[in-house]
Design goal:
5-stranded mixed beta sheet, 8 strands, about 10% strand
Amino acid sequence: MAVTDPERSFVARPPGRPWWPARWLLWALVWAGVVAGGLAGDQVASRSAQFSQVEATTLAQGSGVQLKSRPPLDSRGTERPSARAIAAEPVRAPLIVVRALGPVPADQLRLTCRSLEIRLPVRCEIRTAPGAAEFAEAWVASRSQYDGRVMLEKIFADRDVDAHVELLLTTRDIYEQNKAYVFGLANLRDRVAVISTARIEDGSARSRRRLVKLVHHEVGHTFGLGHHHHEDCVMRTDGTPTSLDTAPVAPCERCRSALLTRINRLAGREALVRDRARAHRERGEIALAQAWLDRL
């Protein structure tokens, strides 16, 4: 019969029998229990976490609460993140927002964004089109044309808060003072532009090439490039469709280098917010400029 040794933590061996098999067996049983308990605990914790996630989702859906907060909406119902949220984002390429005024074919909008993203380090998004009523003040009935400068002011006033550049395409003819018509118009300070397809569209592949050239010309202006009167540069001036047909689609080396430098300066956590403040300050809108800076 085994007796308990008060000075040991294990059962004393009977005389003549080795003690170590019993000790090893005891430790093996203890270790097996620890391992089994740990595995069971992991399974319980995993199931608990899964249940918590499912429960949270179910409760949120049932109560109408959204698990991820969404930015506020603009007047068109488009999501508009706050300036503070934009400043806190990681470094991203500048965003060009493209919209259509009137029955601009969807393939022309897609072509615009695709050509920009292929040739430049930018992001491009096609967003909600404005209604014709929003640009009623720019329409000049006596000419059956839009006043391009008035359009640019409207585009600037309604810019999405996350857009570095806004580009509007329209099928209607546009003009500016002292000119019968223009293919496009841009504001270097405000980073907004408008392009008309009224005089370049003939349903051919040629008209698509014309559009791409105009897009890169006007977007070049929005990033601060001026006209460059060189036959091998998209920033040259072309006043007729025939002249536009001979224009290159890309900027010359000098203009491309300047363009990339200016695009890169706008990439960053605070660059967009500071650029919007700069535009308001240069327009003499000091209070609006300060309001943007206060959001940093």
